[in-house]
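User: tokens in, sequence out, please.
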């Protein structure tokens, strides 16, 4: 079934501008056909490819890597090991990014727990504040300069010790 660019945009969730960009960058598995008057014609398999392409892009795969994957796919059988290597390499990058994001989430949860405890006790005003009169004007890194403030206050705006991050 032939689809217009508007229909593909609606079904894929990608803007018409993005679809044109993907075509210009050579990111479609099959070249986009055109009618006699120059209108783009898409097929169902283009929608399937766009779904995969969108996931690859959302996961951080570069346009160059997607383009390479498309080139290999267009070449047909015989280069599957290269396609697999490209996908495995990206898989490792995504896993590393997920670990990094998990560490970030652990810090956020740690800080949120400290804030929630202080708010629940009515002691939120004790949280470290660089503009507080008791804080020295030269203090820029509460973790490095923690001895200048109480450990509990400084801990709120520092990273949790590594062992606490892993336990969270």
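Assistant: Sequence out:
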């Amino acid at each position: 079934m032939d689809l217009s660019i508007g229909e593909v945009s609606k079904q894929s969730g990608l803007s018409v501008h993005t679809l044109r960009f993907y075509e210009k960058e050579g990111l479609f598995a099959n070249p986009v056909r055109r009618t006699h008057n120059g209108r783009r014609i898409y097929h169902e398999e283009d929608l399937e490819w766009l779904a995969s392409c969108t996931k690859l892009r959302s996961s951080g795969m570069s346009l160059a890597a997607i383009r390479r994957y498309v080139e290999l796919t267009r070449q047909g059988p015989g280069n599957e090991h290269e396609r697999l290597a490209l996908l495995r390499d990206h898989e490792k990058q995504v896993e590393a990014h997920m670990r990094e994001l998990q560490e970030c989430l652990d810090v956020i949860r740690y800080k949120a727990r400290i804030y929630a405890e202080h708010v629940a006790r009515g002691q939120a005003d004790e949280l470290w504040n660089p503009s507080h009169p008791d804080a020295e004007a030269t203090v820029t890194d509460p973790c490095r300069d923690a001895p200048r403030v109480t450990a509990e206050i400084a801990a709120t705006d520092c990273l949790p010790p590594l062992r606490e991050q892993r336990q969270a």
